[in-house]
Amino acid sequence: MAIALSELVGYVAASLTTAALIPQALLIWRTRRAEGVSIGMYIVFSTGVALWIAYGLSARAWPVVVANVVTLGFSLWILAMKLRFERATRHGAKPMQ
């Protein structure tokens, strides 16, 4: 079963945009710091990604679904780390390393 060129382009584009979040997530994880991360941006971004998943499911656009499920995971991980490390800093504790 051959994959259509448009679907291949979709998978490549989705992979690249999803992979773009990896350096941010790893930097936050390694440094345990997320001062420059906007909570509002990640809430809006995660909501948008969830809507892309809904769209992809309704359109049966699997590159959209797969990429956005992974992207949502990274986005929520970054958001969770931001909240965790910010709370630790606010309470005067040094974030766990």
UniProtKB/TrEMBL annotation:
Keyword Hydrolase: no
Signal peptide: none
Keyword Plastid: no
Membrane topology type: Multi-pass membrane protein
A family per Pfam: PQ-loop
Listed name of the protein: SemiSWEET transporter
Residues that span the membrane, as ranges: 12-29, 36-55, 61-80
Organism per entry: Pendulispora albinea
Keywords linked to the UniProt accession: Membrane, Transmembrane, Transmembrane helix
Localisation: Membrane
Domain of life: Bacteria
Principal location listed in the UniProt entry: membrane
